[in-house]
Amino acid sequence: MAKKSSTFVYPTCVRHLKPRKDVRLRLFFLCKRCTESWKNEAFSGNAPLSTGEKMEGYCLLCNKLTSVQLQTWFLCDICDRVAKSIGRNHVAEQSILDYWEQTVKPKFPKYEIIQNDKASLRPRRAEDVSGEGPLDFLVKDKNTGKTIFGIENKTGRSSIKEMSQFQLDVSDCDSILHHVNHLHIPAYIIHAQVLELWKPPTMGFEAKGLWFTDMYKMAQNFTGIKMRALEQRGAAFFKRAAFSPIENFLEQLDNGDGTAVIVKQFELHGIPQIYRTN
Ligand SMILES: [Zn+2]
Ligand SMILES: [Zn+2]
Hints:
Elements: E1 12-13, E2 18-19, E3 24-30, H1 32-42, E4 50-51, E5 55-58, E6 65-75, H2 77-107, E7 111-115, E8 137-141, E9 146-156, E10 165-169, H3 170-183, E11 187-199, E12 202-214, H4 215-221, E13 222-228, E14 233-239, E15 244-245, H5 261-269
Parallel strand pairs: 9-11
Antiparallel strand pairs: 1-2, 3-6, 4-6, 5-6, 7-8, 8-9, 10-14, 11-12, 12-15, 13-14
Bound molecules: zinc ion (2 copies).
One zinc ion binds next to helix 1.
């Protein structure tokens, strides 16, 4: 029988810079630029532990079809999940910006969309407050210079049509409420359906559709809270009727008196309770 070791040390997560029990070797196909950006901006200068052969495929981070290589680092479960979600989130965010440029801007040039929180991988430290990133987009009225509402983006593989209900972590709901309170503006939530593009062994992403709701429709369509068994996190559930196809968004921006519908609602009703715990 092998001698029992009492000094086993788990590998160090290059983003947390701490050994953790769930740290494993993680594999990513990345272009040269994105490899450098993770190494320097998220992993405190730690180079990949190994680098594979050059091949043509999708970079997991920038989603370009280009020359990529298999890169490996030690990461914990959380950091691996965050790292793998960023490329998908970029594609979702870009599809919202494209929609705005092509459809909203020609009709409502006075409204400007500002990307507030471009998804990126940053070093993670124990003292960080989790789930408290700012709203993804802010919309400004160029005539008055005032920020009139925010937009939070949620991304998934499903279309709203295929969902039985829409679910949002309670911590995400709290984060949205925190920011609308702080900025004193209402907010929309846009769900982006993003699907994988397979080019084995690599994978890219493609946005397939956008749906929107706002904090008032969420409050009206809230159905309950459930605990997610494995993760010990509460999720709030909403009827999918809260959402409309993005084609209906334009009419939201003109209440008939030159203001947006949601701005009027905010004046009348303030900030709604988007979920309840009892
Ligand atoms: Zn790249
Ligand atoms: Zn980590």
